[in-house]
Every structure is written in C-alpha cells, then in structure tokens.
Specification:
Length: about 325
C-alpha cells in the first residue's frame, strides 16, 4: 500500500461544505501509516466532520509509534491523532510535555496465528511465539492470553521480530510456531492456511490500545481547538458505527487509503466485532491505571507515573 507522506484532509471537507478553506484553524497532526485504524480520520475529512468544526488537519505519516511520539515531543506536530498508547506514556514518564486527550482504539486488534495443525493456545506449550519486543505491549497481551489457557512463562519461548509484518514473515519462514499480527495480515494468513488461535480482544478488555496525544504547550494555547478536534473525532466514529454506512465506509477506505476491497470489508466486520473504536472522548482513569500497572510490572516505566500525569485538565474528560 502506498500512502502519501503528507495529506491535507481538512481542506477536502471544507470544500465539500462550500466553506473557504483559509478560514479553518490548522492542526499539524501525525500518525502511523495505515488503513482501517485510521478510518475515523478519513471519514472526518471526506464526510465533512472536520470542516463542521472549522478545522484544517494536516496528517504526516511515520513508520512507527516511537517516531510519531518523537516528532510530537520535538514540536514538529501539534497532535498525534492515533498512536500506540504506550509510546506517549513512556515519553511522559521520562518528562516529555505531552498529554493523552482521547482513547482511539479501546481494545487491541491483535490476532494470534499459528502453523497449521495447532488448534488452541494451550498447544503452544514448548513452542516459539513471535512478539514485538521483550516486555512490550504484545508480550503483555500474549501472556494474558497464555495464562487464561493454562500456560505460564517458561512453557513457551519468545522470538522478537518488531512489527507485525516481520512477525508474520518469521512464522512463514518456520522460525516461529505462532505470531501476533494485525489486520489485514490475519486475513491473508487464514487464506494461506494458517490457524487462528485467538483474538487479544477476547481476553483483554481493560487496557486501551491507541490514543490521541498532544503537546501540552500547544493544547494550553488552543484548548477550544483541541476540544473541536475531539468533537469531530466523536462524530466520525459515531458515523462509522452505523451499520447503514458500512458500504460507504468500505468504498472510502478503498478510494482514500488504497485498501483492497476484500481487506476493507473484512476489516470493517472485524473491528466492529471486537468493538475497536472508543465511541466517547471520555477517558477511563481505571483503564489508564491498568495500563500503568502492566507497564510498571514489565519494567517499562517508573514508580511515580499516575493517570493524572498522563491527561490534561481542560481538554481530557476523565471518568471513574
């Protein structure tokens, strides 16, 4: 899939509504290159939700969540529209002037796939499982799934392979017996005959997956604008959640993100099945604490981080 490095999407919506683009407030955003996980932002542009809030959003794509977070910390971006939530958490723990203002993906879309012949997660005893990094979020999710199926550390081996595509490649090469992947790789794997052992979302519902993060100085100077961005995102996710919009949403992903139609259809049904997108801008303090506890247990953050340090008064709506 080829995605342009930079996409000016607020202008599209403004033109659709007949509004002068120059009147919109500009936001410099960033995110990972991707298809289905960015659906709400494609919708916000092309269905006019950004324009309805008089926003002109520039999206810059990066190769990793760490790269997006580094650009945000350095001031190259105002907002990380959607990023793996552990990346800004690690940066905030180290003193970066960032804040989480919304959960985007409320549950992980990870799928555990395996060699043909393996039937259950319990079958991974004595096998090698390919994850992202030692003690990263993929390891945390897999160990929860393994424990629920009677496995503990030492019952299996970890193989570290970075991104999902590399993990799938390790499985195909035969150096791993199972791998944690993301859509659409799981659809492609199923067609190739690999087994699906489980979905992370069926085991872990209390830890958020992706979030929207801001530079605190920018958000402090633009609180109303940040809240309008949240409103546009809420409206876009609500539109996507309507079953009647399925066909139009799939057409949009194919046209704008150059997704294959079969992958777009499968992605829509999969994300809907696991309840991937957080419908509200309200952020659960309890779920942030769950994530902090998991990251602390893995040795990824220090002892002083709290949910209050992660969010931003005046912008983030915290519940619990």
């Amino acid at each position: 899939m080829k995605i342009p490095r930079r996409l000016f999407i607020g202008l599209v919506g403004a033109a659709m509504l007949g509004r002068p683009a120059h009147a919109a407030d500009r936001i410099v955003g960033g995110t990972l290159g991707g298809q289905a996980p960015l659906w709400p932002f494609y919708i916000a542009a092309h269905k006019g939700f950004f324009a309805a809030e008089n926003i002109d959003v520039e999206i810059n794509f990066a190769q990793s969540g760490a790269a997006v977070t580094q650009q945000l910390t350095a001031g190259s971006l105002d907002v990380a529209l959607s990023v793996g939530i552990t990346d800004p958490i690690h940066a905030i723990d180290k003193g970066a002037a960032l804040a989480l203002i919304r959960i985007v993906g409320k549950t992980a879309p990870y799928v555990l796939i395996a060699k043909p012949g393996l039937k259950t997660i319990a079958d991974l005893k004595g096998k090698t499982v390919c994850v992202g990094q030692v003690n990263d979020i993929t390891t945390i999710y897999f160990e929860r799934m393994a424990a629920a199926n009677g496995l503990k550390r030492g019952d299996y081996d970890h193989l570290v392979a970075g991104v999902a595509a590399a993990r799938y490649a390790a499985l195909k090469a035969g150096v791993a017996d199972a791998a944690f992947v993301l859509p659409p790789l799981n659809f492609q794997a199923a067609e190739a005959g690999y087994a699906t052992l489980g979905l992370a979302a069926d085991y872990v519902q209390d830890v958020p997956f992706t979030g929207m993060a801001v530079r605190r100085p920018w958000a402090q100077a633009h609180e109303p604008l940040a809240r309008r961005l949240l409103a546009a995102t809420d409206a876009s996710i609500a539109w996507l959640a309507e079953e009647a919009n399925r066909g139009e949403a799939i057409d949009l992903l194919v046209e704008v993100a150059h997704a294959g139609r079969a992958d777009a259809q499968a992605s829509y049904d999969f994300l809907r099945r696991i309840g991937y997108f957080e419908p509200s801008s309200k952020v659960s303090r309890a779920k942030l604490q769950n994530l902090i506890d998991a990251e602390r247990a893995a040795g990824n953050i220090g002892s002083s981080l709290t949910p209050e340090r992660l969010v931003m008064a005046g912008v983030t709506a915290v519940t619990d």
